Structure prediction request, 242 residues.
Amino acid sequence: MKILALDSSGLVASAAIVEDDVTIAEYTVNYKKTHSQTLLPMLDELKRMTELDLHTIDAVAVAAGPGSFTGLRIGSATAKGLGFALDVPIIPVPTVDALAYNLYGSGHLVCPIMDARRDQVYTGLYAFRKGTDPGAGYDMAVIEKQCVVDIAQIVAKINECGTDTEVLFLGDGVSIYRDRIAELIRVRYSFAPACCNRQRAACVAALGLLLYQKGIIETAAEHAPEYLRLSQAERERAAKGE
Prediction:
C-alpha cells in the first residue's frame, strides 16, 4: 500500500511517500518559512525525484490536529485537494500520536509537547508494549490521549505514574518548557535527540497505515482538522458575547 503523508501541524513542514514498510522519500523543513510556501513545492519535488505517478497513491495521511491553526488548515486543505483529485481516502492521524511514534519501541514513557502558546502545550502520554508472538512488533498504548493543558498538569500526571517510570520528552515545546519541567518533575527524565524530536511525515504514514487497517479513514469531503480548542478570534468573539 502506498501512502502520501503530510504534516504541517507545527513549525516543521514534512511530506513523505511510504509504501508498505519502506520510506521511498521524505522531505522535512524547519526553517523560517510558512507552510503555504513550502508544502506544495516539497510535494512537487518528491514527485519529481521519485518519478511518482500520483494515481498510484492509495491514501493520503495527514496530521489532523491539534497544532497550529494555520498549519493544520494548510495541511488539511492540501490533503482534501489530493483526496478529491485522486479519489482516495484520507487517513486523519492525531498529531501528538504521530509525534510519539517517532520513538517507536522506546522502553520509556513518551511525552510529546508542542507549544500551544498562552502558557499551554499540546501533549499526551504513550508507552510502547512488545507483542507476545515471536517477531511481533510494538503496540503504542495511549496512557493519556492528546490534549491541550498547562505544562504543570502534564508533569503532575507523569509524577502520578510513579518513581519507577522514566519519561522521554520530545517536540518543539521542550526548548520553551525545559526549565519548568526540571522544576516540577519527580521522576527520571530525558529529552529526545535532534534526529527524532520533531514531526516527521514518515511517522504519520506508518501510524496512518495502522489506522487504515482499522478502518479509520474519511472521504475528502468529510475531513476537517481537529483543533482541540477555539481559535483566538473565536475566543475573543465569545468573550464579547457575540
